[in-house]
Amino acid sequence: MIRDRVYDIVTDEIYLRLPGWVDKADIYLKIEGLNPAGSVKLKTAIALIEDAEISGVLSPGGRVVESSSGNLGIALSMVCSVKGYPFVCITDPNASARSVATMRALGARVVVVSERDANGGYLGTRIAHLKRMLAEDPTLTWTNQYANAANPRAHWERTAASILKAVERVDYLFVGAGTTGTLMGCAAYFREFSPRTRIIAVDTLGSVTFGHPAGPRHIPGLGTSRTPELCTPDLVDDVVLVDEADAVRACRGIAARYGLLVGGSTGSVVSAVRSRGAAMSGASVVALSPDLGDRYLDTVYNDDWVTARFGPEALTDRELAGTPLALGG
Ligand SMILES: Cc1ncc(COP(=O)(O)O)c(C=O)c1O
User: Exposure winner among 48, 217, 316, 322, fewest CB in 10 A?
Assistant: First the structure.
């Protein structure tokens, strides 16, 4: 496989079966973290930049600004580096030190806001900071992942289409919700091409995206403290809210049982799959894994970090740790 540009290395065809994660259902974990940006957001970043170029708001000499919890920032750093656009990422203390260092290594300027917004999160503060920057410098282009139709379109065209190509029958599709770009793009595609598929949104307890009360959150990726404009709840069949302690336990359970380190939001997604397991007997289930665990070694996989936030009960997945993997089961 020879590619001209680093962001042409998109891996949309890799799935890991999770035998035994729930009884009597086939679970296919779609691995999005094996591209050079390390997450599903590579496809979003390409689409946002190409859309800005096509619409004429971004051209050579232009500069790009975006708010990100880490993964889109890394992906935009990569795409902007190849295309020669200086890039500024506005992020917050929940972004891992590794993600911030990765963006800087790719040439981005990173601003870390530290004040919480009215809902106790950081998104409001990030957006307010970004808007101040835009007001001061009209040559900056905000790709606006929260409201830009190019975001879900990327997942309509690539993520969702690739799933139906790889897995003939999808009874349930579990997708985590941040900006909801991945979720809404997939939901719209499946409504059209596989209406039988039940679309399950996975969000974090404490996120306001689907109208639930705000609360503290520590793991980047899922959840918001301000409802994203892209969110169309009618397109999804069900929403599962996952406690971050359960997401941590599930991450550790996947590592113990299948030898794969997944990111925090994947922990939420597979925890949601397990919580719905009893109702999915005989079903074919696709669950999206937005990134892998290397960015979370200092958090989700660090015992001190986990114990300080969630207590020692969150350290092990009691249902699965130590259970032998029943291949073909
Ligand atoms: C690790 C991770 N999971 C899930 C998501 C949510 O994706 P989306 O913004 O498309 O809803 C993100 C978004 O940044 C992410 O970084």
Answer: 322
Hey, what domains does the chain have and what are their CATH numbers? Answer: 6-35+150-311 (3.40.50.1100), 41-142 (3.40.50.1100)
User: What's the Cα-to-Cα distance from 230 to each of 151, 185, 226, 262, rounded to whole Å?
Assistant: 9, 10, 12, 26
pTM > 0.90: yes
* Atom 2 (ligand 1) nearest CA: 221
Mean pLDDT across the chain:
95
Q: What is the pLDDT of residues 54-93, one digit of tens each?
A: 999 999 999 999 999 899 999 999 999 999 999 999 999 9
Residues with CB under 6 A from ligand 1: 39, 41, 69, 71-72, 176-183, 221-222, 263, 265, 290-291
For residue 221, how far is its CA from the centre of ligand 1 (angstroms)? 4
pLDDT tens track for 200-214: 999 999 999 999 999
SS3 content of the chain, % helix, strand, coil (to 5): 40, 15, 45
Q: For strand 15-17 and strand 26-31, is the pairing parallel, antiparallel, or unpaired?
A: antiparallel
State whether residue 255 is helix, strand or coil.
helix
Task: Give the strand order in the sheet containing 140-142.
Answer: 109-112, 87-91, 63-67, 140-142
Tokens 């009597």 sit at which residue? 24
Interval between CA 178 and ligand 1 midpoint (Å): 5
Atom of ligand 1 nearest to the CA of 44: 10
Residues sharing a CB contact under 8 Å with residue 277, sequence separation 6 or more, in sequence order: 21, 22, 23, 25
**Both tokens of residue 43?**
């496809």
Alpha carbon of 299 to ligand 1 centroid (Å)? 17
Q: 328 C-alpha to center of ligand 1: Å? A: 31
